[in-house]
From TrEMBL:
Keywords linked to the UniProt accession: Membrane, Sigma factor, Transcription, Transcription regulation, Transmembrane, Transmembrane helix
Organism: Streptomyces ruber
Pfam families noted in UniProt: Sigma70_r2, Sigma70_r4_2
UniProt protein name: RNA polymerase sigma24 factor
UniProt-recorded Gene Ontology molecular function terms: DNA binding; sigma factor activity
Alphabetical list of Gene3D superfamilies matching this protein: 1.10.1740.10, Winged helix-like DNA-binding domain superfamily/Winged helix DNA-binding domain
Domain RNA polymerase sigma factor 70 region 4 type, chain residue ranges per copy: 130-179
SUPFAM superfamilies: Sigma2 domain of RNA polymerase sigma factors, Sigma3 and sigma4 domains of RNA polymerase sigma factors
BP term (GO), one: DNA-templated transcription initiation
Similarity remark: Belongs to the sigma-70 factor family. ECF subfamily.
Amino acid sequence: MRSVRKAPGEPDEEHLVRLVARGDRAAFEELYRRTAPWMAVRLRRRCADEQIVAEVMQETYLAVWRAAGAFVGTAAGGTAVGWLWTIAARRLVDAFRRRAHHAEPPPAAAPQPMAPAAEEEALAATVGGEVGDALRRLAPELRQVLQAMVLDGLSVRETSVLLGLPEGTVKTRARRARIEMRRALA
């Protein structure tokens, strides 16, 4: 992932995170200014509920403020933007789990048609036609990897962190997904 809306001569996000780790509020505000719009768009791709997106944004930046030193101490090769996305993605998963835990089950007597997941709707809106149909027919674990790497532009390492999978598994799933996509589109 590259730097987000950085003017020439301004510090990059990694430098801003190092400053945040030292308690620099202005650096935190600049990091937020640069990354929050991008972060909100990516979260909305995965969740249509604006309240959850707002909560995840708040939790993410609170975590960044509190734990910036953890990035500084372990950022060998990683990007600050990738680190931010990893935090946000984990917070989103936590929000989905909380929501599922507190949701009441529907009455058994009246089965409800299942609405497509937010990711499915975003995928349908982003990729249409034969390619979109082929993507939707992929196994969910293969589709997740392709979505992260192709649609979101994440590296293998970032996808691995996001999905909580070993890098080798991500590579294997990406290869399998591409093979299945080629077959479906042949």
